[in-house]
Amino acid sequence: MISYPVLLPKTSSSSYLTHATSSSVAMVSGLHPAKMNCSHIFNLFCLYGNVEKVSAAVRPLPAKQTRPDGLSLQVKFMKSVAGTALVEMGDEYAVDRAVTHLDSIKVFGRKLSVCVSKQQAVIPSQVFELPDGCSSYQDFSLTRNNRFSSAQGSRNIIQPPAALCAEHNVPAFTKFKVFDAKPASSKTLSGLLEFDSKLEAVEALTVLNHHQIRIPNSCSPFTLKLCFSTSPHL
């Protein structure tokens, strides 16, 4: 278990700032071209620092290829490297944490390569539609799902991917193992989800983190929040 402060002092003596490859932008390659998009990348990287922008270079489907829903896409392949994205984070320390914990993990059968980018910022260009219909670029700078922005961000515990996930803000009627911290009258619950493997946990978190749960007679949806747990098992 590794705990980091929200913001570290930026001084001229910092090894990060004096290093030639210091950047608040991470480059991730090895992304599954059909199953990864900007939101899925955000769901994973936000565990290690605020995510400002994501620009994916995943190749769109070739012309005349039919999608599962039967629609035909008339697009061309990109000239950039397939399965690659740039992730602009809050600072270079967040990038360092993402590289430490996400480099070489497997997501949807693909081994990710995460490294510090030479670019200092993500500038959208050649924005296109991904195979799932999502945009290849997304700005997350104003989202409330970034977890290192408020004073409570210092409570974030940096944890490597694991088979056990903690979940928060779940509607109270949901059945799973819960923590005992909240009173019975609370509208939301927190608890633990144990998967058969770390691979399954990573893929579930990538897709379901920040999923909105709508229930009858509720004014607004509940935003499910997932993170890797510090506990070894249930």
Automatic annotation (TrEMBL):
Key words of the record: Ribonucleoprotein, RNA-binding
Domain RRM, residue spans: 24-119
Keyword Plastid included in the entry's annotation: no
A molecular function (GO) term: RNA binding
GO CC annotations on file: ribonucleoprotein complex
PROSITE patterns: RRM (PS50102)
SUPFAM superfamilies named among the record's database cross-references: RNA-binding domain, RBD
Gene3D superfamilies referenced in this protein's UniProt entry, alphabetically: 3.30.70.330
Coiled coil start-end: none
Name listed for the protein in its UniProt record: Heterogeneous nuclear ribonucleoprotein L-like
Species classification: Eukaryota, Metazoa, Chordata, Craniata, Vertebrata
